[in-house]
Design goal:
- There is one protein chain.
- This protein has one helix and twelve strands, in the order E-E-E-E-E-E-H-E-E-E-E-E-E.
- It has one domain.
- The chain is globular and about 55 Å long.
- 25% of the residues are buried.
- The protein is mainly β.
Length: 181
Amino acid sequence: MACNISLGYNEPCKDSIAGLQAVYFMNFNTGSFTLNATDVVTAFPSGSTVFKYELKGTNGYTETVNTSRDNGTTFFSQELSLQIKKLAAEQTKELKLLAYGRPKIVVHTRAGDALLVGRLEGADMTGGTIQAGTAYGDLYGYTMVFTGQEILPANFISGSTIANPFAAVSNAPTVVSGTNS
């Protein structure tokens, strides 16, 4: 039976660090990913491109397990909250395109792990703001919330490092970085 447990857990060292250093957006129709036996991504679709958003400050990723014993169902809710600084016409256009689409998203953590959010269904922008703030110290930029619902938890990406989330995958995607405005 597929629901039999197969692994224990040992308390790890206290050497982890929380937070996100970047996210990478992919258009939904990029193709299929190759997974190994533990559901880790080992290859990206050939010729895929990702668009990198560097992050600092208030950004986070949370995944929630949703199970109904009565209905016999389980799925995973994925939520990514981003804060992007500085308003710019080009970035507002990209925010609109992200809201219209349902991108697949690679979340690159400060600890060096990379997770693929929305692998099968994509992620929808379910909230966000474009704000100029009130006081000098307020955010002059964007907030975005993306939500995905998948049958599996977000997939880890094989061999990701702090410096490169795609260090060990086959067909590593082309990374397009932003410009400073």
